[in-house]
Structure to design on (280 residues):
């Protein structure tokens, strides 16, 4: 992995992940205190997620995650080499973040590549906890955010993206719909490969469920009421709108895939309000 620092290293990572996550670009406008470090941490989470979920081949993903494990340990000793960990280095070295948190997150990222089918929605979301709970705890230690709310938001946003990636997930042997949902809609794994009214209904149910959970999280937690949570609150609010709008579409999977690549006016407005609340 290239650890050379160019003239604007953080800007390049911010641009990279803003292109992949349009709501991240909006969230950046509301980050004030410790801006460089907070944006660097968000980009670091994106890098770990990409290795866990976005790299198809197992060996390159494992190599990248192992590199990050070593780099985070170096950062804890004040020896960071990557631009993102360099931006966080002094804070990590001076904080009480346990090295075990980084190790737990990296090991969990590896395990996400071969998950077991989930019996129900609770089990499906719980499967993301080993990855996002240590990352939420690290973020809380570094910036004072709400660890549980952060972990829940990250898990729900990931679940939405894994739903959108249904064809890829099936190809790779994963099952991004809980088994009880398949049973309710009389679907088998093989049925999910082809569009059908039953598949569309199952996806609508899943998207409404995720939207409801995101909205409840924003309403009840410190995520949208505390400045350190501004990035998560902005992105979660946009995802809630995307999920509910896709659930009302004739073909929810296509609608969700399109929605995740852009920000509609309702999504922008909802994200803007969540960001403003977290800055109040």
């Amino acid at each position: 992995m290239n650890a050379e620092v160019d003239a604007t290293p953080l800007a390049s990572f911010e641009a990279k992940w803003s292109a992949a996550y349009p709501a991240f670009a909006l969230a950046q406008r509301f980050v004030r205190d410790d801006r460089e470090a907070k944006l660097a941490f968000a980009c670091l989470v994106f890098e770990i997620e990409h290795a866990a979920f976005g790299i198809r081949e197992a060996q390159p993903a494992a190599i990248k995650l192992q590199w990050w494990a070593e780099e985070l340990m170096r950062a804890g000793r004040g020896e960071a080499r990557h631009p993102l960990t360099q931006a966080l280095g002094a804070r990590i070295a001076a904080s009480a973040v346990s090295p075990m948190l980084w190790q737990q997150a990296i090991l969990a990222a590896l395990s996400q590549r071969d998950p077991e089918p989930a019996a129900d929605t609770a089990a499906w979301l719980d499967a993301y906890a080993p990855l996002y709970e240590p990352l939420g705890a690290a973020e809380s230690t570094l910036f004072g955010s709400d660890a549980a709310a952060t972990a829940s938001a990250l898990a729900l946003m990931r679940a939405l993206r894994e739903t959108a990636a249904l064809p890829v997930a099936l190809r790779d042997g994963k099952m991004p719909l809980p088994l009880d949902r398949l049973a309710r809609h009389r679907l088998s794994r093989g049925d999910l490969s082809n569009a059908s009214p039953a598949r569309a209904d199952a996806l609508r149910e899943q998207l409404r469920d995720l939207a409801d959970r995101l909205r409840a999280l924003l309403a009840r937690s410190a995520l949208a009421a505390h400045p350190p949570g501004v990035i998560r609150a902005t992105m979660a609010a946009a995802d809630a709108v995307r999920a509910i709008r896709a659930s009302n579409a004739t073909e929810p999977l296509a609608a969700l895939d399109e929605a995740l690549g852009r920000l509609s006016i309702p999504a922008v407005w909802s994200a803007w309000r969540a960001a403003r609340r977290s800055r109040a």
